[in-house]
Amino acid sequence: MSHLTIFSDTNAHASESFTDGAEISRRLGKIGVRFERWEAARALTDSATQEDIIAAYQSQVDALMDEYDFKSVDVVSLTPNHPDKAALRAKFLDEHVHSDFEVRFFVDGQGLFYIHKDGQVYGVLCEKGDLISVPANTPHWFDMGENPHFKCIRLFTTPEGWVAQYTGDKIAGGYPKFAQQFC
């Protein structure tokens, strides 16, 4: 189940918590973060190709590509047996920004986004069916957990995709990790 936890950026104790998708969308919308639930146009198997996955969500993908002038779309997948899972996880655990939107739709699995905005930290557990779009230059971090399991559609406006620019703020270290929050 999707979950939003709101913290102060000076205190890692939750002040509010929500599981209703419409309320999550409303709360995140106030800080410019898009959150939606999508349904596939057809069933997907575990062996579905990138093309199959994108085709199952083609109308939603096309709408976003038109709205934001995205230039490319791909599918990324990570499983608990990936040999570089620890290094990949570490890459996104520190607060960073991107000069582009970070758009991720969870076809399967889950991941935990933290967004640092306006004196608060928003912890968003995204699961299968969730779309999250973090605006450009918005401080955030992502925790996929020690044993990641997710398959996501990503959309990009630039050929190089998301390039992380680390803020140097150590705030991420003070908030619950994926396993502490949801396992």
Lay out the secondary structure:
Layout: E1 3-8, E2 11-18, H1 21-29, E3 34-37, H2 50-56, H3 58-68, E4 72-78, H4 85-92, E5 96-97, E6 102-117, E7 120-127, E8 130-134, E9 140-143, E10 150-156, E11 165-166, H5 178-182
What this model shows, in words?
This protein is α+β, with helices and mostly antiparallel strands and 183 residues long. The protein has one domain: Jelly Rolls. It contains five helices and eleven strands. The protein has helices at residues 21-29, 50-56, 58-68, 85-92, 178-182; strands at residues 3-8, 11-18, 34-37, 72-78, 96-97, 102-117, 120-127, 130-134, 140-143, 150-156, 165-166. Strands 1, 2, 3, 4, 6, 7, 8, 9 and 10 form a nine-stranded antiparallel β-sheet that branches. A two-stranded antiparallel ribbon has the order 5-11. The longest helix has 11 residues, at 58-68. The protein is globular and about 45 Å long. It starts with a strand and ends with a helix. The mean pLDDT is 93.
Number of strands: 11
**Secondary-structure element order, as H and E?**
EEHEHHEHEEEEEEEH
Look at the structure and name the CATH superfamily: Jelly Rolls
How many distinct helices? 5
Report the uncertain regions: none
How confident is the prediction overall: mean pLDDT? 93
